[in-house]
Structures are given as structure tokens and as C-alpha cells.
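User: I'm putting together a teaching handout on how multi-component assemblies are represented. Below are the sequence lines for each component of a complex, exactly as they appear in our records. Could you produce the 3D structure of the whole assembly as C-alpha cells, so the students can see both representations side by side? Please keep the chain order the same as the input.
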Amino acid sequence: MRIRDILKVDFDQLGNEIVVVILVLIGGITIFVWAGYYNVAASEKHLGITNWILATVRDQSIAARSSEIEVPDLKDRDRIRLGAQHYVAGCAFCHGIPGEPISPIAQRMLPAPPDLANPVNEYDAADHFIIIRSGLKYTGMPAWPGVGRDDEVWSVVAFVEWLQDTGGADRRDVIDDAGPEQRTGGGYTNPEAGEAYALSNCVRCHGDADTAPVSRLVPALSSQSPDYLRRSLQEYRNGRRQSGFMQPVSANLTDGEINQLVDYYSGLAPVETTSPEMPEAASIARGRAIAAAGIPKQEVAPCSSCHAGAASLQYGIIDGLGQRYLAGQLDLWRKGHRTGSDFGIIMARSAANMTDEQIRDVSAYYASLTRDLSRFARSSPAGATE
Amino acid sequence: MSLFARHDSPVIGALFFLLWGPILWAGHLTIAYGGQALLCTLAASSADFDAATAIRLLIGVTTLASGLASVFGAVVPRLPFRLLLRRRPVDADDGTLIGIMRLLSALASLGILFAGVTTAVLPVCAQGR
Amino acid sequence: MRTTARRSAALPLLVIGGCSVEQSALHPTGAGAEQIYSLFWVMTIGGGLIFAAVLLCTLWAIYGGSGIRRTLSAEGMIYGAGVFFPAAVLSALLGYGLYLMQESAFASSPTGAPQIAVSGEMWWWRVQYRDAQGRSLESANEVHVPVGETVNLALTTKDVIHSFWAPQLAGKLDMIPGRTNMLSVTATKPGISRGQCAEYCGGAHALMSFVVVAHPADEYAQWLDGEAAPAKAPDTEREKLGQDLFLRSGCGACHAVRGTAAAGTIGPDLTHVGSRKSLGAATLNNDEASFKRWIVDNQHIKPENGMPPYRIFTEAELDALAAYLDGLA
Amino acid sequence: MRIWKTPTGWRLPTAVNNTVIGLLYIGAAFLFFVLAGILALVMRIQLAVGDQRIVTQELYNQLFTTHGTTMMFLFAVPAVEALGVMLLPQMLAARDLPFPRLSAYAIWAYVIGGLVFFSTIFYDLAPQGGWFMYPPLTTTQYSPGNNADFWLLGIGFIEISAIAGAIEIVVGTLRTRPPGMTLAKMPIFAWSMLIFAGMIIFAFPAVILATMLLELERAFGWPFFSAELGGDALLWQHLFWFFGHPEVYIIFLPAAGLVSMMVPTFAQTPLVGYRLIVVALIATGFFSFGLWVHHMFTTGIPTLSLAFFSAASMAVSIPSGIQVFSWIATIAAGRERFRMTVPSLFILGFLFIFVLGGLTGVMVAMVPFDWQVHDSYFIVAHFHYVLVGGMVFPLFATFYYWAPMVSSRMLSERLGRWTFWLMFMGFNVTFFPMHIVGLQGMPRRVWTYPSMMGWDLLNTISTIGAFIIAAGVLVFIIDLARNFRFGQVGPDNPWGAGTLEWLPNDVYSTRSIPLVRSREPLWDQQNLAEEVKNGHHFLPGAPTGGRETVVTTAIEAKPQYIIQMPGPSWTHLFAAVFTAAFFLLLTIKAVTIAITCGVLAVASCLIWAWQLDRPGKGEVDIGGDIRVPTYITGPQSHSWWAMVVLMLVMGSLFIAYVFSYLYLWTVSPDVWAPDGSPMPPHVAYPLLSAGLLVGGVALLALAYRALPDPGKRSWEAFLLLVLASCAMAAAVGIEVWGHWITGLRPDASSYAAMVYMAALLTGQGALAVIVLCLFAGARLATRQMDRVRRVTFDNAFLLYAYTAGQGLFGLLLVHGFPRLLV
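Assistant: Of course. Below is the structure of the complete assembly, with chains in the same order as your input.
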């Protein structure tokens, strides 16, 4: 049995026809592409069949990826109100706000951005999550800028679901309450117009001297350590800290604007949050133990050694921040999505081995504290490196 | 069937005859190591139980018994042959099998002796480091 | 195909304390290692002779005269050389081995002797000294023993299996989760030697070493008192700034410096880190430059180790911090 | 002859002829040898000098794990098994191995699984736990990724294909010998393959159980090895090394057997001390099971236990001594001088290296010395001397010696000598310095070392040596490429050997099966080759019209009957592909696709089995006026023997489980039932379960009596079969249910995990038995099984009885032992 007979397969008859067919196909495609026959203009509508194919491919691809997604509670007011703010600032240009028409520029896109108030195709919450997080090729729908920030995406999804359920009827409670006009950071008088605009972007979510943040997912910045605020904004600007909300806002801030925003917020007195949720005492007690002694068995360092008393002001002051915000950030560190900055890596090391329950307890403990304003009266050490 | 041997031997019997020594050696090691482990655990859990004498006794007896049995196999192989193959050794092939069995039993008894002698010298359950 | 230019990132290691530190079983300075050393030579010479004999027989079998080949081809020769001779040699060897095991078994000293608890943690050693006065003090990556006196090492592990091996002192003993293995060692000569983890424990197993320092009997008590004392207060201006930085940057969360607010138990105890013979479990030399490189770039020197890289200090702050730590003699 | 024609073209994978698949087996094993060798070169480059960072820490840990695992599991054992598959039938003048499709299945499963396992090194998924995978490092806490699962499932499943080959070789060696070749006239290689297969049967199940336990702990958290819940890391070491040490002898014995075949040829005289070598092989095989703890001398086990195993480790060196001196005696007894051909050069190289490795082995058997050198480079040197010296050199000798049997041209002497001297010099330059570096304190498995330690020079020498070996292997590959011509058989008996494999044979092996009267038939019976060629001996034609060979009694080799062997088919190939897919998809947790592949694998096996058990063709004359039946049932049938061997495998798996149960009790008695965990359920549960098992056996006995006459159909037997399967399933269900209601959860403690493990093992057996019973039922329903043609029923009955027995003993242990402690 020669090698030849072993591998000999009767290709001969089939051979010729296959080769011819392949050549014809290749020739046809090259001519079609080279001559530029196909019209890529957005003004020309797709053929029916092309539309159907593109739509089916899109929907199938979204469905395949959204099948295993776990949908959190989307009726949560905090999520909806936070999502609303981002929607107003970022998405409204193409998708429009109920009661206000979509801008004529967006209407000339192909495919045109859908009007989310009254949905055409039946995407569920998980589909929306995939679309908003990953974006869609060749449609102008961008992917979410904050890598790994699924928590932010769920806020926008919550708002979109609210928009589709209510059709944007009671705008007042959700959108307008935090509308740009009302919240101009009244007491702040600054001559250059530019700073006023920059501040209005922050005030929309973080509130100002007399209004609380728009949702419990948003950290209260008043009387926060100036070094921590300055470094956070710098890290959002250079992308070492990932956030779909904060990166667009801080992308073109100048250092001058950053310093003024920092001075403004660190000077404010803390504002009583409208309805602080009271975690039960047992959780706070467990949280206090972890904060004081850490969990040596799981290599979790005590929080108080960096976030209390005489510790450096480079580490943010976390007393009195919202429990949900703190828990969300700890979860980000645990998943390794907030390790871009030199400080993030240190915090990630401790958060890595914490269980969900321990994260809730520690966040509950620090949320229950009232902020001690004397902390940063002394001058903080030289600013941290970029 | 003149071409072939006139006898047929039971396969299992032949196997056990051939491995007479090694099986004794394996039994000895199992009893020695298993006994020592179990008795040391009992000694650890109940204070009054004196593990040393119990283990030395057990291993001494097992060594003696299995050692003698394997030496017996090496010295008088015909008896186990008749017992296990239920016939007398007849031709050269049987001679080869007996030869193999005898040396195996001798080696096994040496192995048993090597293992047995250690109990007399070393502390029974101590980690000894 | 050998690499031509050595990559700049390779870390140059200075020689610790002048002479190249020995980690060789061929230069024993402990009672256990000496016994094994003599056993080694007995077996090597014996083995060498037997090996030569076998080679000789093979050459004779091929090229020898018909007389020698006839004797070699007799079945009796196989019985003699193949069964009886090895049986005799092995019995003697077994006897020698049992004698040594019995020696080391009864040599493990009674509970009164000073005890050192060594806990293997993923890729460094936590060493706790418990002496007669009941004092218990912690150090890391170094085992100090008195010459001539038997010391009991209680070996445990916090995570996976490690193995405590100081070749010049004694044989190795594993550290198994859920068990405490007792190893008794007796140094016979003063001096510095080195040991390493011998059971593969993942990640930086290759860099999990430690230094063994054998003190003359009279100096050991004095060294122990020094080690038990709290940390020396910083004297120069740079060291004061360094201590302030150390405390306010949260280093106390994982490290302890007795006599200051820092009381962390996750990382090694740094009370007398300045006086240690090496840094990073005998990976780096102990000087200010090494402190700075470890603080900023430890994940590159020893990948996957427990300490995050601290790149949050300016050059001046780093100098101060390194000065403070180096000063903790 | 048309019956034996090997399929060509794209139908080649369906071939089952032992020479064809044997060559594929050897080729795959050699490919893995070269691949793992390249990994070794990369490791040597990294270690050439201190403080090198060419290879990162994580990659190096993957490299040495994959190098070790590939060499041991994917090269060494398969290579010797491949030689068995290729040479044994020819040496025993059998037409083929008794179960040709089984070995083809095993080989394809091994090739696919091995390639996928090895490919993990390219996409950073290779295991990092070392070839021994000690927990707790390999539990999910410290190795969270899928890397460890690739070892556990990938390698676990390749051991199953090794066991399949072992069953094949045991039955082949004992039953398909030519008439007249009694046990005492069997060639030494057949003895070594018999003992090799016997060792696999008792050693591999231990590691399969350990792999199951660790995979259960990783996947479902059953705490067998985590100390805080009563488990013990040493349990893994006991189970692994109970397999580990016999495995290295499994690798060495066939190589020793090959040397014992080649030395007499080159000395042109019968082997001196045939009995002594057989004793040495059996003694090595037995003693190797009694010395596994010498891998654990430094774990703190009491010195007395260590002494037992130190004694056994010394005793095992005596048989090796016997073999070495027997070879020297044979060389000396040769009429003219020992011929210096390439194979004999490799044999002398083997003697030199293996004896040195054996001596360091005796040194390391001494407990105090092992305390110093365990896990150091001294051990790396020792085991390379005994493994590379003990197995790779004889393997290369075999390549040169037996090449004419599969290639029309012999490999060249000139290139052969280059290969030998490069490999011999390279080997010693690489591995001898490692003895010294090890004694100087360099531990194993370190991806780098400080350059101040003074180890640089010796490591550089080792690296240079490694490249010399690589050059030698390269020259061999060139020689292979130039001279190896796959095709009809080369020159007849070029070396003038005495054993049957040198008879002129074609794809169907010899024209007729010779009557054997001595150990070297070709030397003693002058014109045997012509007689066999002209068909004067047994079974010249193919009376049953299919592939068949003669089956003879185990001891006296008297012809008993003819086996009808299955021919080429796709079914075993699909079965292998789907089995490989099942295990490998499980590693990446693609559970749904994996289960479908599993079901497809079982389905292909059933279709494969459906074509077997063809009706007998009555009495046939096989020559020498001897008439033998062509279909036989009962204890003499070769499938009965295969089932017995399978039951030995399942038995040793169960004994390993019982050892683990008692061992964990000695380690953590506080977790055990009376006080540590809830007591087992009321005694009614085990009694009911036991009753069902015994009842099931009774049902099958009734079904046996109710088997129909040929051609008829019997619904009672079918019903009894189905009932028996339900009884078995119910028994297992009740056992699990009984424990569940006492509140015992398997992830609570090691005791609980062990209790559920017993039920799981019996359940595993039950699953196989149920499939077999239903298959027998289907055969019954389609009139393909009756009172005479009942091999399928016998097998089902045997497996049922065994599983019931194992289940009963499991119940006794799990329900009885805690009550003893009360």
C-alpha cells in the first residue's frame, strides 16, 4: 500500500466544476467592489432584503449575548434618576427627550436612532443592556466609555425602561427636578462664564450648597478632601479611572477649572440627604469591626488605617458617603475595574477577597458616620504625581 | 493431542502458586502499615492505650508468619504446587514455574525481613524529626 | 541561541555580607546535616565502586578472554552478583539508615528547648520566637539559632504546602495545611547560611528563600533581647518625615512596627527590618536602594506577591521612607 | 488476503489492524516526545544563568508542568503500550489483538486528547500545578482558572485509554499465544507486557479516583483535600504516588523486556537466566506497589512508616540487579563477540546510564539522605537517569532494531551512530552536573535562581548538554525522513533473531500460525519460515470467512477455539472523538454540549457493540487434524476474561476509595459520624438497598434460565432484565435519599463527602450496568441473543454481580463503620 494509494481520493471528476465556479464568483465580486457600484450614501434607503438581513443579524447577535445577563431591580428610583441625567446630557441629542423633537441632524442618519419613548422593536432590559454597553457597529450607537462600569449602564437602562413604560409622562419627578436651569449652584459667584458652564455639569448630579445629589448612587462631594477630588478629576480626564458618566464631563476641563470646582465643593458643608436609608445596627457593628481590625484571614487590611484620623488626605474621606455608592465602588475594586490609578491598585488588594456581605457591612458602617470637618484643616502633603 | 502437554492446570491456582511470595509480602506490608496507622490514631485519641507494644506485637507476629510461609514456599515448592495446581509437577515447563516461584518467595521473604526489622529499632508513632 | 544582551530589567543581586552565602548540603554546619553528609560519602564511594565493577564486567563480557567470559556467563554468577551481593550490601545500608533515623528520632529534644514557630505563607516566612521567659516576638524571612543548643521548629502553613529546607542545618520538612510538623535542629558552627522552600507552591516559589544566622551561644540571648525591644525612634529629620509618611500612608494596615501605631498582622513585622540580612525573603540586598525599589516595583521583582506596588510617593518622600525603614535596626 | 485489506484514502482512520494503528500510536508518542523536549529546551535556556527573565514566572510554571505531564502521560506509557500493540501479536504469531477496535478506540482517544491537552500551552491555559498537581495549590482557591481542569479531565481520560490497552494486552498475552508456546516458552517481552498490563490495572485506578475527588472538590466543593473541613492534602499524595511509582516501573519494564529480546540476538545465544529475568520482572512489578511513600519522606509521616517503605525501596533494586547481570551473562555467553550495531550501542548506553541511575536510586531510598535531597536537582538527575536511560535509550534501540518490520528500508548505521553518541554524550553532560547542583541546594521547579549562589556554571553546562541531546534527536529525525519507507515489509530477519516476529508476515501477520516447541523457534526449528509461508501450520485459510485467530489455554497453550474479530468501522472512531469531546468540553464548563457528546459517545459504543457477538460457525479444522469450535461462552471465553480484568480495575478503584475513607478517619476522627456529623439513617435504608441489589442478581439468574432457544424470542427474560436494572437504580437512589434526609450534605465535611462518594461510585457502576442490561434486552428482543449465543448476557450478568457486590460492601462500610465508633 503506497502512500499514493492511501491518500488517493477520486477528486478528479469533481475537481474541474468546483474550480470554475469559484473563479466566477471571485471575478464577479471584485468587479462589483472595484467599480463602486453599491451606493453607500445614507440618503439612499436600504433595499428591503438588505434591511431584513441587517436587522436579523443585529437582533440575533444581541439576543445571543443577552441570554445569560442577570437583570437587577430596574424600578429603583435612584437608578432611574441617575440614568436620566446622563440621558439628558449624552443620549438626548440623537434619541430626543419626550416632548422635544429629535434634532434634524440625527434624523438624517441611516439607520435612524429609534425614538425610545415609543419603541418600535421589542428589546427587553437585557437587550438594552447589551446595546448600551457594547454599542452597535455601523450605526453610530457608541459603546459605553467606562470599561467594566456595568453599574452605570444599568442606570441608563433603568431610565430607558422607565421611559418606555411611562412614555415620559411625569417628566417633572425624574428629569426636570434635576434640570440644568434650576441647579446653577446659586451661591457661587465667579466672573468667567466658562466656569459657570463647567459647574452646571457637576451640579446636575452632585447637587450644590443646598441640594442633595440626584440619587443615592451619586457620592456627595461637599467637604471632601481637596487632594482626593483633584486627583479623581485628573484621573477621569486622562482615563486612568473609568466612568461613562464622569469621563465625558471631565474630558476637556482645564486645570484652572478643576481647581475651582475642587475649592467649591470641598468648601461646602455637607447637605442632609433627603431620605437616608438606615442599615440595621448589626450590619453596622460588623462593619465597625472590619474597619477597625480588618479580616487578617482573608488578607483584608483595616479601613481605618487609611480612611481615618491622621491618615493622608490623598485617601478620600468616606465618612457619611451613601452605602450603595461605597458598596458599588468596593465591588468595582474587587472585580479589578478600578485599578488604573496607583491608589486604585492598593485599594483593590484589600477589596479582592471580601465577600458581598462584608462589603455591605463596611459600607453600612461608614454611611452611618457623620463627617468630621476638622480633618483637613491642616495643609495636606505635596500633591500626588499625575 | 500428542503435540501438547498432557496436563491442564487451573489458571487461578497457577497464578496464586507463582505469586506465593509476593502475595505474602503484600499482605505483610498492608497489615504492618495499616495496623500502625490505625493503632497510632487510637493511641492518639485515648491516652491509656499503649500503642508501642500493640504495634510491635502485631508486626512481629505478621513478620514471623508471612516470613516463614514464604521461606516454606521457597524451600518446599512441591507442596504448594500440588495444593494449588491439584497435580504433580511433571515436565520442564513445570520446573521453570517452580524455579520462578522459589526465587520470588526468597526475595519476598527478604523484603518481609527488611520491613519487619525496622519495627524493633524505631519509635512507633513519633514523627522523629 | 543564548541570549546576547541581558535585558536591563534583570535585577542585579549584590552578594550578601561579603562571602557568597552557602546553601549547600556539602558544607554542613548543623548536627543533622553532618550525619547525612557522612552517609552521603559512604554511599557515593560504595556506589562508585559498584558502578565501576558493573562497567568492568560489561567490558569483560564483550572484549574479555574466553575464560573470563565463561565465568561471567554462568547462571551462578547472576545469583551471586545479582541477588546475594546486593542483599548483603542493602542489609548493611538499611542498618546504617535505621541507626541514623533512630539517632535523629531520639535526638528531637524535650519540649523545654527554645521554640521557633515558622509559618510558610505564599512566598515568605513568618518567624515567631518563643523563649524561656515566655516572650513571643515576631520577625520574618530569618531564623536565628544558638550554636550548640537544640532548637525546635514548629512548621505550619497559612495556605498551600511549603517545605522548610536549610541544607546546611538539617534535612527538609514539609509544612502541610492542618498539621504542625516539629523539626529539631542543632547548629554546630556560627555563621550565615541560606535556605529555600523546597515544595512547589506556585507563583514565586523560586524566590521564597530565608537566611539562617547561627549565633555563638552567649551572644544569642543578647540578640534575642535586642529583637524583643520596640523599634528605635527615628533620629534624623529625613527619618522623622519617613515615619510620618509610613504611619499616614496606611502601611500600618498590613505591617507592624512595635512601639508605633502600626500593628498590621497581614504582612511581615518590620520592627527591626533594618537589621535583617536581606529583603523580600532573601531576594534583595538590605539597603535604601532596595527598599525604594521594593516599595515601588515589588510586583516586577516578585510577581503575584501579596504587597501592591506603592507608586504614590514623590522621589523625596521615597527617600525619607527608605531612610526610616533602613534605620529600624 | 481481501479479508485483512487495510482501508485506504480517507477511510484510513477506520483501520484496526494492529500494525497500522500501532504505527500511528508510536508516531503520536514520538511527536509528544519531541514537543515536550522542545519545552525542556526553553526551560534550560531560562535556567542557563541566574536571574534570567526570558521566560516569565507564570509561563515557566506552565512549561515544567506540561513538560512533566506530557513526558509521563503522553509519551512514556503510550510509547511502550504502542510497542506492545505493534510487536506483541507478531511475537505471538497471532493475527491481531483480541479486541482490535478497543485498541483503535484507545489510540484515537489518546491522540485527540493529547493534542488538545498539549495545545493549552499556546493559549495560556496549561496547568501550573506540576505534573503531580498537589492540592491545596490546585484547589479553586489557589488555581481558579480552567488550567487545572485540563490536567484533571484531560489526563484522567487518557488513563482510561491506557487501561483499555492494558486489558487488551492481558487477554492477548494469555489467550492468543500460538499452540505450544506454554507460559515457560513465552518471549520475555510478552512477560514484561503481561506484568506491565497487570500493573496498570492495579495502579491507574488510584489516580483516577484521586482525579475524580479533586475534580469534585473543584467543581462542587466536596472537601476531600481542604484541611479546615476535615480533608487532608496528604490523601492526594498517597493516592497519586500509589499510582506514581508503579507508573515509572510500568514505563521501565517493557523497555527491559525489549533489551532482553535484543541482547540474545546480538550475542547470537539464548538468554542466560530466563527464569531469573522473569522473577525479576514479577518482583519489580510487585515491589513497586509497596514503596510509594518514598516520595513523601519529608511530609512528617512517622519514621516507622517511612522505614517500611525505605526497606521496600531497597528490595526493589535487587530485581534490577538480577536483570543487569543476566544481560552481562548473555553478552559473555555469546559464541562470537557481541556485535556492535546501533541497537547494541543504545543497549550499552542504556546499561551505563540505568545502572548509575539505579545506584542513585538506592542512595535516595535511604530516608535521612532523602530528607536532604528530596525535591532538589539531585532527584531531577536521578529520575532522568532511570527514565531517559531506562526507557528512551531502549526505545531508540527498538526503533533501529524493529524498523525492518514496518519499513521497507532499514535505518542507516552511520546516522544511527551519530544519533547515539550525540544523545549519550549530551545526556551525561546535561544531567550529571545536576547531581552536584542539587546537593548545593538548588530546589526543583524554580523559574530562576540568584546568580550569587554559584550554580551558574553547572546550569550552563546542563543547558549546553540539553542542546546536544536535541541535536541527536534531530539527526534521528533526519535518518527517519531519509530511510523510513512506509510500505511492504523489509528484509526478512536482518539481525538473525530467534523469535516469531521475524517470520515473513504481511498485513494479516503470518500465513499460518506455527506450532512452537522452544523459546527461540526460528533458531531451533530450521525451515520454520518456509513451512509457515506454505501454510503447513495452523489456520492457513480463513474458515469462518472473517478475521480470526486461534485462542489457546493460558498455561499450556492448547488450542481451544477461534475468535471472530471485528474489522474496520467508523463507530469506534466516533466513540473516541465524542469521548474526547465530552471530557475536554467539560473542562471549559460547556456542560450542555459536553453531555450531548457524552450521549453520542455511548450511542457509538452501542452501535459498535451491536456488530459484535456474531453467531458461531460450528466446529472448524485449523490444521494438524484439530477441530475447535468458533463460538464459546462461559469462563473460557476471552470476553469473560476481559470482564474479569475490568472488574479488577473497578475493584482496585474501590479499594483505593476504602483506603481513602479509613485514611481520612485517621486524619480527622473529630469530623466522623457519631459526634462530628449526623449519624447515617435508620438501618432499614441500607437493608432495603442491599435487598434490592441481591434481588437484582436473583432476577438476572432467573433471566439466565429464561433465555430462549436459538431463533426464538423470550419476553420473560427481557422483563427480568429491565426489572433488574430498575432494582439497581432504586438501590442507589434509596442509599442517596437515606443520607439526604439525615441532613448530611456532601460539602459539609470530608466524612459527608466520603459517604456520598460511595454512593457515587456504585452509581457509576450502576449506570454502566443499566446500559448493558438494556443493550442485552435489545439483543434479546431482536432474536440476536439466546441460550447458546449469550456472551452479551454473560457480560451483563458479571458486571451486575460485581456492582452489586461493590454496592453491598460500600453500604457495610458507610453504615457500619460509624456504628462501630459509637
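A couple of points students might notice: Residues 1-19 of chain C have pLDDT under 50 and may be disordered. The interface with chain A takes residues 245, 247-250, 252-254, 262, 264-266, 306-312, 314, 317 of chain C (CB under 8 Å).
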